[in-house]
Write a structure and sequence with these properties.
Layout: E1 5-9, H1 14-26, E2 29-34, H2 39-51, E3 56-60, H3 66-79, E4 83-88, H4 103-131, E5 134-139, H5 142-146, H6 152-172, E6 177-184, H7 190-193, H8 197-205, H9 215-226, E7 237-240
Parallel strand pairs: 1-2, 1-4, 2-3, 4-5, 5-6, 6-7
Helix pairs in contact: 1-9, 3-4, 4-6
Length: 247
C-alpha cells in the first residue's frame, strides 16, 4: 500500500489526465475521481493510462454530495493509502447570460465547481492534519479573475474558489499543509477544437504568448505546488494562461 496518494477530482478530464501522468512521474499513486454517470467514458481514459504504464485507480463518486465525499475519502485512505495531495479539478459549465440563466444551471455549477471543494477538502484535511503534511491545489480559471460573458455562474464559482483557498491556507499553515490554486486560461483540448476556427483565432489574438496552453503545462504547475519544495508557498493563485489575465 502506498503512503503517498494523490486524489484528483474530475480527474478523467483533459487537465486531470495530464496531472495524473505528471503525478505518476513524480512517484504518486493516483486516484482519479469521476461522476458515477461518467464511469463508462472514464474507464476508457484509465485503460489508456494503464496501457502507457500509468497505474491509476478510478474512484467514482458524486462530488456534490457531502456524505458521499466523506465516505469516499475514508475508503481511499483505507484501501489505497494516505492522501497527501488533493487536487480539486471537478467542474462543469452551464453557460447563459444572467437574464437567461435558470436557477438549475446556477445551482449545478456552484455545487459542482465550488461546493465540491468544501465537500472533499474537509474530510481530506483530517488525515493531513494528523500527519502534519498535505497539499491542496484547487483548479480555478482565468474567468474567475476576468469574468466572462455568459458565465456569471462559472466565474462566481471560480472566484469563490480563490477566496476559499486563501482562507483555508491561513487556517492550516501551521499544520504543514499548503493550499493554493491554479488558474488556467484556454487549454488545447477537444473542447476548444470544437470552437469555430474564426472564434479560436480571435481568442488567440488576446493571449500575449499567442497560443493555447498544453494540458501538460497546467500539470507542471500543479506538480510544483504539490511538491515538498513548495512548502513556503501557500494561499496563492498561480495564473497559467499565457498572460491572458493581464487585460
Amino acid at each position: 500500500m502506498s503512503t503517498s496518494v494523490a486524489l484528483i477530482t474530475g480527474g478523467t478530464g483533459e487537465i486531470g489526465t495530464a496531472i495524473c501522468r505528471q503525478f505518476h512521474a513524480d512517484g504518486y499513486t493516483v486516484a482519479l475521481n469521476c461522476h458515477p454517470a461518467d464511469v463508462e467514458r472514464s474507464e476508457t481514459v484509465v485503460a489508456a493510462l494503464r496501457k502507457d504504464g500509468i497505474a491509476a485507480e478510478l474512484v467514482p463518486f458524486d462530488v456534490t454530495d457531502v456524505d458521499t465525499c466523506s465516505a469516499a475519502v475514508s475508503d481511499i485512505e483505507k484501501r489505497i493509502g494516505a492522501i497527501d495531495v488533493l487536487v480539486n479539478a471537478a467542474g462543469i459549465t452551464r453557460d447563459a447570460t444572467l437574464a437567461n440563466l435558470e436557477p438549475d444551471s446556477w445551482n449545478a455549477v456552484l455545487r459542482t465547481n465550488l461546493d465540491s471543494v468544501y465537500n472533499v477538502s474537509r474530510p481530506a484535511l483530517t488525515g493531513m492534519t494528523t500527519r502534519k503534511y498535505g497539499r491542496i491545489i484547487n483548479i480555478s480559471s482565468v474567468n474567475g479573475q476576468r469574468g466572462q460573458l455568459g458565465q456569471t455562474n462559472y466565474s462566481a464559482a471560480k472566484a469563490g474558489m480563490t477566496g476559499f483557498t486563501k482562507a483555508l491556507a491561513r487556517e492550516v499553515a501551521r499544520d504543514g499543509i499548503t493550499v493554493n490554486s491554479v488558474s488556467p486560461g484556454y487549454v488545447q483540448s477537444p473542447m476548444i477544437q470544437a470552437v469555430p476556427e474564426a472564434v479560436r483565432a480571435k481568442i488567440v489574438k488576446q493571449i500575449p504568448v499567442g497560443r493555447f496552453a498544453e494540458p501538460r503545462e497546467i500539470a507542471r504547475a500543479v506538480s510544483f505546488l504539490a511538491s515538498r519544495d513548495s512548502a513556503y508557498i501557500t494561499g496563492i493563485d498561480l495564473s497559467v494562461n499565457g498572460g491572458f489575465h493581464i487585460g
